[in-house]
Amino acid sequence: MADEFHRIRRLPPYVFAEVNAAKAASRAGGADIIDLGMGNPDSPTPPHIVAKLVETVQDPRSHRYSTSKGIPGLRRALAGYYARRFDVKLDPETEVVATLGSKEGLANLAAAITSPGDTILVPNPSYPIHQFGFIIAGASVRSIPATPDEEMLRALDRAVRHSVPKPTALIVNFPSNPTAYLATLDFYKEIVAFCRAHEIWIMSDLAYAEIYFGDLVPPSILQVEGAKDIAVEFTSLSKTYSMPGWRMGFAAGNPRLINALTRMKSYLDYGAFTPIQVAATAALNGPQDCVQAMRDLYRERRDVLIRGLHAAGWEVPSPDGSMFAWAPIPERFAHLGSVGFSKLLLARAGVAVAPGIGFGEQGDGHVRIALVENTQRLRQALRSIRAFLQTDNAPPPETLEETPA
To answer: Which one of 76, 135, 199, 233 has the fewest beta carbons within 10 angstroms of its own beta carbon?
Structure first.
C-alpha cells in the first residue's frame, strides 16, 4: 500500500502546527501566553441572538433533521441583507444557499465544479482554504498578486495567455485575510469584465464585509452589473455577529453555481441545527446596533495595537478593514522567516502570532496579528514586544535551528 493517500499527499504539513506546539509547551510550563494568532472572536454573541436559539431549542420539533440548503426564512433574511446593504436583489430559492460557515461552502463548491487538472487563480498570500479547497479537488493552483490593483489585473492577463489549461476560476477576498486589503467597486468592475470576457468563474469571499474602519465601505462584487452571470459570493455570521462556533455562512449569486453547491451539499449534510438557523435569521433581521458596536471594538483595538507597535519601533500599516494587522517582520529578524520569528516572539515576549507563510510563500516576510484580545491584554502584549525589540534578540542565520521552541 502507498505510504499516504493521494489527496493527503497534496497537502503540505500544517505550518501553524509548529507555532501551536511551542505555544502549548509554553503554557504547560506555566507561561502566560497572549494569543493573537487565530482569528477567533472573543466577544460573546449578542444576547437577542442567543435568546432566539434558547427559545427555539425548547421546541422538540426543532431537534429533527433540518434543511441542507437552509430554511426558507434564513435564505430570505440573507436576501434582505443584500438588498439593504448592497442594493442587490437575490432570489432566495435559486441564488442563496446556507453553508456551515463560509469555509465549508468554498470547499464543497470547489469539489462540485473542479475537474482534475483545472487551473485555478488564487491570490498569494490568502486564506488557506482558497487554494487548498481546489487542490483537494484535484486542481492546479496558479498564484497571482494579492493586491487589488493593476498588478493583479496584469497577472490575470498573463495567466489567461500562458496557463494550460486556461483558468476556469478566480478567488478574490476583500477585506482580505490575512493582508487586510480592501477593494473598490471600480476594481470589481474590471475583474468582472475580464472574467466575463474569458469565461472564468469568480468566487468572492466577503466574510469581513462589516469590519471596516475608514471611508471605504467594502462593496459586494454582486453590485457589478452582470456579475451574477459568473460570480458567487460567500459571507459568514462568524465575525459580523461574533458567532464563530455557530458555523453559519452563505453563498449567493450565480444560480448555476448555487445549484451545484446545493446539490453537492444534499449528499453531504442536513444543514445546520435548526435552532442555529432560526437564531441566524434573528441576527440578520433584528437590531443591527451590535454590528456597529463590534466595529467600534475592533477599531479601538486596532488603534491601541498600531500605536503601541509604532512606539516600540515596529512599523506596521494600520488596516482599514478585517480583524487583522499584516505586519512585516522587522528587518533584523528577516533572516528567520515568519515561522522562526513567530517562535522567537513567543519565546521572548510571550505573544503568539500567525506566521505569514501559512497563507502562501509570498507571506513569509510577514506575520498576522489578530485583534482578539481586550485592550488591557493588548497593552500587556505591547509592553512585552517593546522590551523584546529594544534588545538585540535576533540570532544569526547559522543558529536558527537553536531558536527556542
So the answer is: 199
